[in-house]
Amino acid sequence: MQDAASRLKALFEQVIGAPLPVRLRAWDGSEAGPPEAPALVVRNRRALRRLLWKPGELGLARAWVAGDLGVEGDLYAVLDLMAGHVWERDDDSRSLSDALRDPGARAAVRGLLKLAGPAVLVPPEPPREEVRRTRHLHTRRTDKRAVSHHYDVGNDFYEIVLGPSMVYSCAFWETDDGTTTLEAAQRDKLDLICRKLALAPGQRLLDVGCGWGSMALHAAREYGVHVVGITLSQEQAAYARKRVADEGLTDRIEIRVQDYRDVTDGPYDAISSIGMAEHVGAATYLEYAENLYALLRPGGRLLNHQISRRPQSDESAYSIDGFIDAYVFPDGELAPIGTTVTQLERAGFEVRDVESLREHYNLTLRAWVTNLEAQWSRAVALAGPGRARVWRLYMAACALGFERNRLGVNQVLAVRTPEGGASGLPLRARTWGA
């Protein structure tokens, strides 16, 4: 009888109709596939049960998070080689019986059934790190729960991943040759935003989704503005308040646990929203934009820094990546940049500048993965092995998404242009001061 790895290789190639792009190592120690390629390690038969009961990306993700699947070698290379080699359909309705009705996969699925053993008849429980999704309701309660799931992992864990800057958004890199540090690139990003907003001493800045307070601290310290930072995460707020107190800036910075829909103390001279709008959702995005517009004084500027995706042929059928929705950003939604610009303009803004930082996010994510891998044992001790595996997979896969132009990230500068049309921006593009 063939060993487990050879049988898996044959079954896999039967499904995809192409040679196996990676090496397979099975639970019995056997190996199959290109010897020089990085290895996908199938540690037990439970991994097969997960794939049979939830074919496609979500089944693979569950096996990875639970530790049933692993990688030996370059994780980026395995993800790149495997891209496109899962069953195309990956939604909650696809089950084992669906797969058995698929003529192209029936024989391979039957082979996996034999290899997985009789336990395959019982669906394995999802890893405890998986969150029950709410179908993108985007109420105050569901948004708070989703934010808590993602950001309340623990500040010590985020310190490992993000480094001293504690900035959780795309950095702005001077070079890609390894001579720029993550901390320098994040400082340059914060300063770029401050310059685009033309911040000046005495102004009021609202930082929507303020995270651990890095933007608020930079703007108050370097530009002399008064900042209100809002977040839905209690852990973030506590951390940010301590940083503010440690720097002696409590007279200039207020950190609130508050929904953007509940801010009523405008007008503000400027608003920054950095990596927050992905949580807003398509159904409520116009409301988000209208709220921010109402909070700005005439002539005030908004800097909206947001991840985007490529347009789909059927926009009504689009939903965020199944793994990310289940394990990383519950109820998160991405939109094409054109949709974002349109919604901001519908709310009354004049969009003055759009800058893509797509390649910069690839570099940022790789730096975060390097940080995580360098302190892997401590990260596991802090967050648990499942959560640490979630983060490693999510960040590595997203890095490839930005590198391959499946994802984008853009800074949109918009103005609440007053009646009469005087935007307050200089004539020459990208000289941000008045």
Give a verbal description of the structure:
Belongs to the CFA/CMAS family. This is Cyclopropane-fatty-acyl-phospholipid synthase family protein. Keywords: Lipid metabolism, Methyltransferase, S-adenosyl-L-methionine, Transferase. GO terms for molecular function: methyltransferase activity. Residues 157-418 form the Polyketide synthase-like methyltransferase domain. This protein has 434 residues and is α/β, with parallel strands linked by helices. The protein folds into two domains: 4-121, no CATH class; 140-415, Vaccinia Virus protein VP39 (Rossmann fold). The chain has 17 helices and eleven strands. The chain has helices at 4-16, 46-53, 57-66, 75-82, 96-101, 106-116, 140-151, 155-162, 182-196, 214-223, 234-246, 285-295, 322-327, 337-346, 358-374, 376-383, 385-403, and strands at 23-25, 31-32, 39-42, 69-72, 204-208, 226-231, 253-257, 268-274, 296-309, 350-356, 407-415. The strands form two sheets. Strands 7-6-5-8-9-11-10 form a seven-stranded mixed β-sheet. Strands 2-1-3-4 form a four-stranded mixed β-sheet. Strand 8, helix 12 (285-295) and strand 9 form a beta-alpha-beta unit. Helix 1 (4-16) packs antiparallel against helix 6 (106-116).
Task: Kindly summarize this structure in a few lines.
By secondary structure, the protein is α/β, with parallel strands linked by helices. The protein contains 17 helices and eleven strands. The strands form two sheets. A seven-stranded mixed β-sheet has the order 7-6-5-8-9-11-10. It has a four-stranded mixed β-sheet with strand order 2-1-3-4.
